[in-house]
Amino acid sequence: MNWEAILNGLWQALNSVPGIMLLAALLGWLLSKLYSFRPAWEAYEGTIISAIKYAETAIPDDAQNKALKRLDEALRYAMKVYAETHKGKQPSESLANDIREGIQIVHDRLEAKGTL
Fold this sequence. Notes:
This protein is 74% helix and 0% strand. Helix 3 (45-58) packs across helix 5. The mean pLDDT is 89. It has helices at 3-14, 17-35, 45-58, 66-85, 93-113.
């Protein structure tokens, strides 16, 4: 058999009703795996909201670089709560970066809703 015959047979198999059903099932499985991916910070969203609200009250509005200071304060608060709930263990660097990103995203959502 040559490659042309193999490819022709494969094309005919995929172009049949069972082949199309198999491709649809494969696509459905792949999409379910892609959509089930959630960022790591979503598991700590409640802590992040509390940290943001705490930082908003702890840093005054007239402070220099207030956005950076509030982000830092919220991150410190979230890391403190993480350490308390995980027996003093600090999060990994990648989780800390995910939480930092989550703080920025959740802050933007809260600000857009007007709940800050």
